[in-house]
Amino acid sequence: MKNTRVLLPAIVLLVLASEALAQSAANWPQWRGPNRDGISKETGLLKQWPAEGPPLVWKASGAGGGYSSFSVADGKLFTMGLRGDREFVVAFDVATGKEAWSTAHGSAFRNDRGDGPRGTPTVDGDRVYALGGSGDLTVLEARTGKIVWSKNVLREFGGSNITWGISESPLVLGNKVLVNAGGPGASIVALNKADGKLIWKSQSDKAGYSSAIPVEVNGTTQVVFFTAERAVGLDSKDGRLLWEYGKPSNNVANVATPIARANRVFISSDYGTGGGVVEIKADNKPEEIWFTKDMRNHHSSSVLIGDYLYGFSSAILTAIRFDTGEIAWRDRSVGKGSLVFADGNLYCFSENGVVGLVEATPTGYKEKGRFRITQGNLPTWTHPVVVGGRLYLRDQDTIYAYDVRQK
Predict the structure, then answer these.
(1) Is the pLDDT reported for residue 92 higher than 90?
(2) Is residue 245 exposed (0-12), middle (13-18) or buried (19+ Cβ within 10 Å)?
(3) What are the b/e assignments for 203-217, b being 16+ CB within 10 Å?
(4) Alpha carbons 86 and 69: distance in angstroms, whole number
(5) Angle (nearest 5°) at CA 236 between 191 and 131
């Protein structure tokens, strides 16, 4: 009996230590995850949710106003929010939900569709790169929140803000941080990530709402941006324009993140436009493989799992074959929203606060559970994150962390 009394606390401590270690190792360092594709490498997750949804680990307030999603690294969850008249970069402890630090970094963006920042911080080593709704780009120490350097990219490069605010999540690539500043001759800029000095600038498109991705094509690292006017592929070394594709662009808002596999890239927008796949040939000329109005990504981006894209075509969850554009199925699911993929399933989060687990299969719509979070008076447009056995959701000032691991 004595041995049992000693053993049980030891086992509890071991379990707690193991959980803390797992959370500190959890890694989702930027917008849409490690590869900017909305795919989590998590395994051992629930295949079916209880009727009331997965268990809530913690709920925290203090994120501030806005739609910024999360980056997770070294035991911290990073996001941005509006507090009073300033936008803040905020770090929370992933184990407890308690605030680790917060740093003011930019002026308030205000809009009738919701105030505050839209982009997601990017974690690169011991630095955090955050772009606010008014164009304030700030680099901070990840451990302390101390500012390393900061500049307003709209003012510096002659751009003007867009209707619903700068929404991009900065791309860090090698020694560069890249953003769509939207200025004349400086639509896209590459800055030295150490000090913010200009490395190159390119094009004159106005800024879009989308975030860039890197793609290896024809032996060159390209950066693909979806500006207000078109998708472009630039040489990451010098900003040289390699190709462009304008058909998926609309004149209201280009928001979705491009998706690439090998030398093929999918670009999509809503407002009745649609999306298509282009193949980048050896001479860097884009050849359209297909185009459809049946996959119109609005604020959400699709995910590519196997041979199929899964995404919200406006309000309808849709599965479509990547190489042909053939529709596999469509379903209204949880309603118009956003999604990420983990361990065989899509984690769907509607703008009405409904969360659904849906199997990622082209054979048909198969829902594995749903629940609802309490919603304020604005849409739940913050995109979900699955990392470290947790599902993270946000509704403006409030963050939810759910345990989605199999027991």
Answers:
(1) yes
(2) buried
(3) bbbbbbbbbbbbbeb
(4) 18
(5) 40
pLDDT digits (tens, 9 = 90+) for 140-174: 999 999 999 999 999 999 999 999 999 999 999 99
pTM: 0.94
If DSSP codes are grouped into helix, strand and coil, which group holds residue 327?
strand
Contacts of 10 (CB under 8 A, 6+ apart): none
The CB density around residue 168, as the number of other CB atoms within 10 Å, is 27
Average pLDDT over residues 3-32: 62
CA distances (Å), 104 to each of 78, 125, 204, 360, in order?
14, 21, 30, 40
Helices (H) and strands (E) in the chain, counts: 2, 33
Which of 29, 6, 76 is CA-nearest to residue 172? 29
Sequence-ordered list of residues with C-beta below 8 angstroms from that of 64, at least 6 positions apart, any chain: 80, 81, 82, 83, 87, 88, 90, 116, 396, 397
CB 36 within 8 A of CB 211: yes
Distances in Å between the Cα of 92 and the Cα atoms of 59, 83, 375 are: 11, 16, 21
- Maximum Cα–Cα distance for the chain, whole Å? 77
Mean pLDDT value of segment 281-297: 97
> 3-state class of 155 per DSSP?
helix
Q: Tokens standing for 235?
A: 């040489």
